[in-house]
Structures are given as structure tokens and as C-alpha cells.
């Protein structure tokens, strides 16, 4: 053994040629490999543990997110239902408005047709009376002029008196003769007045002769006052 050691020191024998040293060297290498494997295994276990914790955290987050998503979905579904109800209400209101609009259009068309028909009838009536003459006492006037008189009976009387006598004559005339009559005061023709009253009572039934006579006096008073204002 001592000689072997001396040979190793001198260099005659290589350390790799000694079985014991080779065995120790192999054991050292195996121990080194085992240590590396153990270290690698520890690192692997640590990584697996870290990955496990990481995935647990992810799963927990996903589960929490899933719960939140479910809550959000329920809230969104409720809002969607409310919106659908509102949309249905607006549709019903729109349908009512469209129906009302159609009814209004229909009534407008009917009124338009009636207006056209009435206008046509009036034209035909005007054509018929255009050549006719109306006689009030000693005065004869075209029947077409009566269409220019206003529709209220008292105003109709005033317009008809203007046509038959003229405002100048009316401002200087009275309905009946009285003791206070002057030379400048005229009495309206009795026959013309009677025909005017009969015509007005027939047109505006059931007014009385007293109402027509009052309308004539009112017209004469208006003409008298107008002349006095202009004279002043």
C-alpha cells in the first residue's frame, strides 16, 4: 500500500488505474449526480407547488368572476325585460296614433268631398239665379246681389236696404211719416219696405215682423248718425 502511494506520488501509477480510487471517484460522481437530481427534484417540486398555488388563485378568481357574471347577467336580464315592456308600450301608443291619424285623414277626405260638392252646388245655383231679377215694390234688383248679403238677419236687412235705396237716401229717410217731418225728410216706399219684410221673414223663419221692423229702424239710425258725424 505504501509502495502504491509512493508510485502515485512519483507519477508512475495513474490515479485512474487504482481500483479503489476509481471506485471512490465513481461514487463521488454518483453522489454528485444524485445531489443534482435531488436538487432538480426539489426545484421541480417547488415549481409544481408554485404552479399549484397559481392555478388555485386563478380558479378562485374565475369562480368569483363567475359569481359576479351571474349577478350581472341577472341584472342585465331584468333591465332587458323592462326595456322590452317599454318598447311594447311605445308600440301600442304608436299604433293608437297611427289609427287616429288614419281616422283624421278619412274625415278630412270626407269633408273635402263635401266641400267640393257644396261648392259645385253653389256654382250651379248662382248660374240659375244670375239672370233672375227680384222685385221689391217699385225697385227691381238682380237676384245674384242677394248672395252678397250677410247671413245674420239684421245685417241681411241692412245690406238689402243699401242695395234697394242706397246709404244717401237712407240717411235722409224715415220708416213712417210723423208730425216732426221736415222738408228734407223722406219716407221710404211702403211697398218696397213691405216686400223686404216679407222676404226676410220667409228667409229667416221664424222671426217676426216686429224684429224685421226693428232691424230697419236700427239701419236708418246708423245712417243718420253717420251723416251727422260726417257733417260735423
UniProtKB/TrEMBL annotation:
Domain BEN: 135-227
Domain of life per record: Eukaryota
Xref: InterPro entries: BEN_domain
GO molecular function: DNA binding
Coiled coil: 73-135
Keywords associated with the record: Coiled coil
Protein known as: BEN domain-containing protein
Protein's organism: Araneus ventricosus
Amino acid at each position: 500500500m505504501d509502495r502504491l502511494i509512493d508510485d502515485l506520488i512519483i507519477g508512475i501509477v495513474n490515479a485512474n488505474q487504482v481500483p479503489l480510487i476509481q471506485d471512490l471517484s465513481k461514487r463521488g460522481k454518483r453522489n454528485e449526480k444524485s445531489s443534482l437530481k435531488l436538487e432538480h427534484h426539489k426545484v421541480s417540486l417547488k415549481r409544481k407547488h408554485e404552479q399549484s398555488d397559481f392555478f388555485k388563485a386563478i380558479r378562485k378568481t374565475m369562480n368569483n368572476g363567475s359569481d359576479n357574471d351571474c349577478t350581472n347577467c341577472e341584472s342585465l336580464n331584468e333591465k332587458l325585460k323592462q326595456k322590452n315592456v317599454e318598447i311594447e308600450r311605445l308600440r301600442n301608443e304608436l299604433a293608437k296614433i297611427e289609427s287616429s291619424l288614419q281616422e283624421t285623414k278619412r274625415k278630412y277626405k270626407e269633408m273635402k268631398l263635401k266641400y267640393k260638392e257644396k261648392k259645385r252646388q253653389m256654382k250651379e245655383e248662382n248660374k240659375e239665379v244670375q239672370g233672375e231679377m227680384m222685385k221689391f215694390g217699385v225697385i227691381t234688383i238682380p237676384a245674384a246681389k242677394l248672395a252678397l248679403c250677410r247671413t245674420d238677419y239684421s245685417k241681411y236687412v241692412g245690406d238689402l236696404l243699401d242695395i234697394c235705396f242706397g246709404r244717401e237716401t237712407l240717411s235722409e229717410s224715415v220708416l213712417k211719416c210723423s208730425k216732426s217731418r221736415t222738408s228734407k225728410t223722406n219716407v221710404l216706399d211702403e211697398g218696397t219696405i213691405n216686400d223686404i219684410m216679407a222676404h226676410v221673414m220667409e228667409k229667416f223663419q221664424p222671426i217676426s215682423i216686429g224684429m224685421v221692423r226693428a232691424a230697419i229702424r236700427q239701419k236708418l239710425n246708423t245712417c243718420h248718425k253717420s251723416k251727422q258725424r260726417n257733417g260735423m
